[in-house]
Amino acid sequence: MRDARTPFVAGNWKMYKTVAETVKYVKEFRALVKDIDGVEIVVAPPFTALHAAAEAARNSNVGIAAQDLYWDREGPFTGEVSGAMIREAGAEYVIIGHSERRTLFGDTDATVNRRVAAAFAAGLCPIACVGETLDQRERQETFDVLDRQIRQGLDGLTSDQLAQLVVAYEPVWAIGTGRNATPEQAEEAHGHIRKRLRQWFGPDAAALCHVIYGGSVKPDNSASLLSQPNVDGALVGGASLDVRSFLEIVTKGRDAARRR
Ligand code: PEP
User: Fold this and answer.
1) Average pLDDT, rounded, for the chain
2) What pLDDT score was predicted for residue 260?
3) Quick one: 138 exposed, middle or buried, by C-beta within 10 A (0-12, 13-18, 19+)?
4) Which of 71, 91, 113, 190 is the most exposed place for a label (fewest CB within 10 A)?
């Protein structure tokens, strides 16, 4: 159980890294971060490497996340993986509703909602992704989109669950494009999300819920993004695939969050 908004930095590996590559990375990375405190560090390998990653990270300060889950516990759902299976493999977190899942694989706010509930039921910490497209931003619909994604995606959660949740604000136009939101744009969206969480789940839960930023986070911008008062961490795609660059993002982000 978290009782404070300790900075949270997660690496989303997407469909990269074999089991052997995962084990090599995690062994090297855990040694580099072993004395780094004041930040929650997570990596999300593909399903095939989850168990090996969890074994390689055992008794370290590196947590393991899956990149998705299915909401039923078991059944005739070819190709799907349940929260219980992910938990048994040794992961403690799961990314839900990433924009690639929404645009390429049909995830909706309704399915995100089922997955978030299933994650809690399985004892996993959900990292629930929200964010607007470029068109939506240009039409000034960003806040409406975020409101809908949060309202529907988190519908039915208790305040206690909300307090343990991680919301990842990932503007779709910033993912994998090299074009990150400015710290001011990120803070504006995060502040809005926090305001809604306060309205819908109460001030105590909203004060504990992490709202992290994702979209072209790199070693040279993690400090400015994490220096913002409502940016509680980062979800990092491409730059998390390299041990040294992810390490730099973690340390610079943590240091900036400490100074704010
Ligand atoms: C992501 O995949 O969640 C992401 C933010 O990717 P990138 O950092 O590569 O933009």
Assistant:
1) 97
2) 85
3) exposed
4) 71
Q: How far is the CA of 181 from the centre of ligand 1 (A)?
A: 12
11 close to ligand 1 (CB < 6 Angstrom): no
* Domain around 79: 8-232
CA 225 / ligand 1 centre spacing (Å): 14
* For range 199-219, the mean pLDDT: 97
Q: Which residues are designated catalytic?
A: 98, 170
Q: Which atom of ligand 1 lies closest to the CA of 217?
A: 8
* Closest approach atom of ligand 1 to CA 178: 10
pTM of the complete model: 0.97
Mean pLDDT of 108-118: 98
Q: What is the CATH number of the domain that holds 184?
A: 3.20.20.70
Is 65 contained in some domain? yes
Percentage with pLDDT > 90 across the chain: 97
d(CA 163, CA 151): 15
